[in-house]
Design brief:
Length: 203
């Protein structure tokens, strides 16, 4: 099956056990994964995970955008915490790996193509290929690093600097998702985003 660059991403994760550099072992692992992966094409916005539920699937973005969001307890507004682009691994790692209810929602944007694997299917892979279990740790660490960087950016960068950074890391995203979603990711109101664009123009 076409993997849309999944294995290029997975096998760049670090640290990588020596066994996962063995070509025959890796080919057998890839074949086992290919048998379990499901490809879905999304024409409409759709929730992949609802807050309060346990994450049952891990996704890979072959095309499009997926976001993670929650509702602010004080304002009741949506707050987008992650915008996953193509070649991203999508999940709530605490909910997925530790089997806990998530406090976030995960939503796929229209026109996106996703590869997915269930928790049970992934556990079957880890049982058959024990060295592959390192991927769970690698993915969890990626999210630790992401949220540490996100916290620094929210604390130290202006809203405009955050917008410019978003455009540099997600080229063309302003054409793919609504201004409301972008504003919620920047932690500003849509009105503030519109004002910034009027004052500064398009970066």
């Amino acid at each position: 099956m076409e993997n849309y660059g999944l294995y290029d991403v997975v096998f760049k994760l670090r640290p990588m056990p020596k066994r996962l550099t063995d070509k025959q072992y890796v080919n057998e692992l890839i074949a086992a994964l290919d048998q379990r992966l499901t490809v879905t094409d999304h024409r409409h916005r759709c929730l992949l995970l609802n807050a309060g539920h346990t994450s049952e699937y891990m996704y890979f973005v072959g095309r499009g955008i997926v976001r993670c969001f929650y509702f602010d307890d004080r304002t009741g507004r949506e707050q987008t915490s992650i915008l996953w682009k193509e070649q991203s691994i999508v999940c709530d790692p605490v909910s997925f790996f530790q089997r806990k209810a998530s406090d976030s929602n995960i939503e796929v944007m229209p026109g996106s193509l996703l590869l997915s694997i269930s928790y049970r299917q992934l556990q079957d892979i880890f049982e058959a290929f024990p060295e592959a279990g390192i991927f769970a740790r690698c993915i969890s660490l990626q999210y630790v690093y992401y949220f540490a960087g996100r916290a620094r950016q929210l604390a130290g960068a202006s809203a405009w600097e955050r917008y410019v950074h978003l455009l540099s890391t997600h080229p063309g995203i302003e054409l793919s998702i609504s201004k409301e979603i972008i504003a919620s990711y920047l932690n500003v109101t849509p009105q503030t985003l519109s004002r910034m664009l009027r004052e500064n123009g398009h970066p």
